[in-house]
Amino acid sequence: MEWMTTTLAAAEGVGPMGQAIGMGLAIIGAGIGIGRIGGSAVEAIARQPEAGGPIGTNMLIAAALIEGVTVIALVLSLVLSFV
């Protein structure tokens, strides 16, 4: 029974560490996603300059959706830290 209390005491700080890792992964994933969107949009505009307007609009909408999901993930992580 002593090993169980020792294990639980050692695992007490794992929650905040997991939370920090999850928040970091969410931010890194959003950065990679927005970078890929931007790179693809620039490449598409270079191939077809006359379609620059719609491509830019679609790029901004996709980036905003990614940012929205990232903010929701960060807020959810912070809310769970206080529960």
Write up what this structure looks like:
The structure is a single chain. The chain has a single domain (18-81), classed as F1FO ATP Synthase (Up-down Bundle), CATH 1.20.20. Helix 2 (14-47) packs antiparallel against helix 3. It is 88% helix and 0% strand. The protein has three helices and no strands. The two termini are 28 Å apart.
Helix content estimate: over 70%
Beta-strand percent range? under 5%
Q: What string gives the helices and strands in order?
A: HHH
- Name of the CATH homologous superfamily: F1F0 ATP synthase subunit C
- Name the CATH architecture: Up-down Bundle
Low-confidence stretches: none
CATH topology name = F1FO ATP Synthase
Tell me the structural class: mainly alpha
pLDDT average, as an integer? 87
Q: How many domains is the backbone divided into?
A: 1
Distance between the termini: 28 Å
Q: Please report the number of helical segments.
A: 3
Rg, nearest Å: 20 Å
Which of globular, elongated, flat, extended, rod-shaped describes the shape?
elongated
CATH class: Mainly Alpha
Beta strand count? 0
Largest sheet: none
Helix and strand arrangement:
Blueprint: H1 2-10, H2 14-47, H3 52-81
Helix pairs in contact: 2-3
What are the key terms here?
83 residues, mainly alpha, F1FO ATP Synthase, 0% strand, elongated
